[in-house]
Amino acid sequence: MYERALSSLREKQYPTAISLLGDLLTLDTEFRDAAALLAGARQSQEFVDIYYAARQAQNVGDWAVAARGYERIQDDPDFQDAGPRRESCERRQRLADLRKLMWQHAEMGDWRSVLALHRDLVALDSSATDPSGLVSRAHKEIIYAMARKAERSGRLTEAVGGYKEVVRLDPGFRDAMFRLRRYRPFGE
Length: 188
What we know:
Elements: H1 2-10, H2 14-27, H3 34-59, H4 63-73, H5 82-108, H6 111-124, H7 134-152, H8 156-169, H9 176-187
């Protein structure tokens, strides 16, 4: 039984080894190093379970759960890819967090923060795109707000310049075309 358990351990068949060592210890609680081998086999099986749970979490995009799993086993030589996988999951989680924050700031109308978060996103992933047009909308919102402020302050030439830019970017944006037509003589 002991020899079969050792063979199962060498082949990384931990459930079989655990069963055999458990049976052996039931018969003789002091048999050689069976208790230590059983503890090691249980830990090895736990690490295997953690690894496959982390892989499953990674496959469904649950980056935080996957990263935590990989972190627990990354120092084990049997799981040499756990460290790089953890780093990849942490990076993807950070990207997801940044995208979520961008949406939250957009919902609050905090367009400058949207642009700052997008810069962070691009710094982390140079191939990051403009999620659902948030960045282009932030640019238009900021230019439009500056044009409105200039209009309210009587700086109509500046306001017309802002409205022209907004209309160039998006002719249907808010009432920019109306305001441009209204104040165009001041911009000429």
